[in-house]
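pinging the channel bc i need a second pair of eyes. not urgent but kinda urgent?? the chain im working w is below, pasted from the shared doc
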Amino acid sequence: TQGVSSAASDVYKRQALADLRVLWLTVLGLVTDPDNHLSLALQKNLEQLAQAVIAELDLPAAEQDRPWLVQVTSQIAEGLEA
């Protein structure tokens, strides 16, 4: 049963990383849309952050800074909820 739970855990991790990629690609698309109503400074900051996250996700799994990925995504989500 240990192997099954480990395999399931790996599937969940891969799905979470795929979900993060979709989320940040969406953020990148939204902030680079000329019709968005964000200030130029905020657009550029979010664009740079999205590109940094996507670059991190592009690294091999063993090299990814997953705690940073979770932290930055959580902080943005908390900021949006406020």
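so The chain has a mean pLDDT of 90. and The helical segments are 2-31, 40-58, 66-81. — does that match what u expected or am i reading it wrong
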